Amino acid sequence: MGFPSDGGELGAMMRALDWSGSPLGPPNQWSQALKTTVSMLLAAQAQIVLFWGPQYVALYNDAYAPGIGANHPRALGRPAIENWGELWDDLEPLLSGVRQTRKTFAAKDRPFYVERHGYGETSYWDVSYSAVPDDDGSVGGVLCIVSETTERVLGETQLRASEARYRELNATLEQRVAERTAERHLLATIVETTDGQIQALDLDYRWLAINASCADAYQRIYGKRPRVGDSLHEFLADRPEHLAAATAIWSRALAGEAFTNIEEFGDINFDRRVYEMKFETLRAPDGTRIGAFLTGIDVTDRLEEQARLAQAEEALRQAQKMEAMGQLTGGVAHDFNNLLTPIVGLLDMFQRKGIGGEREHRLIAGAAQAAERAKTLVQRLLAFARRQPLQAVPVDIGRLVADMGELISSTTGPQIQVTVDTPEGLPEAMADPNQIEMAILNLSVNARDAMPEGGKLRISAKARTLEHAHGSDLVPGTYVCISVADTGIGMDEETLAHAVEPFFSTKGIGQGTGLGLSMVHGLASQLGGALTIKSTVGAGTTVELWLPVSHAAAGAIDAVPRANLRPLPTGTALLVDDEPLVRMSTAEMLRELGYWVVEASSAEDALQRVKDGLRPNLLITDHLMPGMSGTDLGLALRNQYPELQILVVSGYANNEGITPDLSRLTKPFRSDELAASLANLAKAGR
Questions:
Q1: H or E element: which one contains 463?
Q2: Cis (ω within 30 of 0) for the bond into 502?
Q3: Bridge pairing between strands 455-466 and 530-536
Q4: Predicted local confidence at residue 605, as pLDDT
Q5: Percentage of the chain exceeding pLDDT 90
Q6: Residues 6+ away with beta carbon under 8 Å from 251
Q7: Rounded distance, CA 548 to CA 564, Å?
Q8: 111 contact partners, CB below 8 Å, separation of at least 6
């Protein structure tokens, strides 16, 4: 850009500035009057600023820039209100008056309140504001030629004040002496009564002064008080280490160094406190260095509070990380369940039909076993993500733990001495018994692996009452605490910090999924309890599973038998799922059960088929699909056909968003599990 061709630093800034964001637009589109005025002010040595247009866009020269402090260079090319906002109520009437009347406004030592160095101050200026005509004769802007007089005005003000004070001092010398004496007494009183610690030592480490607060601090941490004239060396002679620390820091101050330091002092037999101390050189009236003094404050409580805050912030970050990981693993598990559904269904069909010879039977059985292991892995992922379906009922934890003793002993092997301790009268807890059994078994296996040379494993349960909030975010109340303690290798702090993260494992490759503790953590949180871990390297680990106490009577733990029921053929089944492979395997199962199957890839597709005349007897639908959910589809069709049987299938394995009165089945599933769900559905009449 050729314009402006010169103009010092501001001219260069104008040439380099991106004017697309300025109300003035690019300089090559400016009016000739504006260009001429800008060229004039850039070349001038006086402090000049031009406010152009109705928005008073600021353009100024090198001489003016220092006067606006930190507002330069952001003020260049911007409306004045953005950078002169604090004085706009004062400045705007002056500018608008010049624009409207075309009359020049001039003033000497005109005060303006400005914020140019990060704080507000009153400045003084000689000003001359003149209207500048545009090419069409209208007022284009206001040219402000200014000269800051702040330093002179303040100097004259201070001079007048000093002269008045001198006259007053001469007139009332005796009164001033009395007032000064009273002032010294007041200052001494303040020093003596303040909570801050103030003390001074001479070059021989003897106290020249010490206030009561500082003497009290010595009393607290050493059990004795120093007095003026005492020697620091004699005061701490019976504590050589403390004397060395004190003289090391005082020697710097007595050598003339001014500094601030934070250190801990005190005898552990009394108290240890942390002090923030500011050291200054102490000089005689003639400037000779005669010692040093410090002003200090006790910051122990503040630092402890900061540490607690940092710990709380770290706990929050950890909780947020675990929540994010839970959402991720929950989504992965959902997709994995959709992938497993056709695999499990197909292998189940091969086994039921006895396809192939003996070798094929073994291969199919191995694949089915692998699919079941994958299904278990997904359940652990869902447990960590807190999305597995739980049937929380009052559970006799004491009996459950006691009954598992033999199973745990056989699992851990003869090298591990297993002790089970469950007291009589233990209250029932709200829990899913099957999931709790799996959790205890997982913790026991972890304990076994932590004791490769053998050791002791103690599994216990006891009632615990919390009267205050617990470090694991447990609210006050009564809990049943299941403890699994081993004498194994333990964990260091870094390992402990990651222990409940999914897929984190200290075991070798192929020896663990890293989901055991994360599953138990998710289970405890979903039940309203918590998981706590205490561990010391070489001394073992104790894992505690806290479960809320039930206020209802414990019921029997009903085993869920594998269903052998096969529903009678009942006509047409409308099968809805957005995954083609899931639809294919499920449709084959339904046909084997005697249904005529109509497939739909979405809820909207299913509604259209019903609108076209389809009258199904059974609706089997996925829950989460693009567009309308399976639950909403089921409710919409039930309103039209109350006799329609509805089964909602979910890969997420949670109840969120599914109406409680709709029957549900979790992916992946085998033909007999589907048959059992349909039989129960037919029995219930829905």
A1: strand 455-466
A2: no
A3: unpaired
A4: 94
A5: 40
A6: none
A7: 36
A8: 122, 123, 124
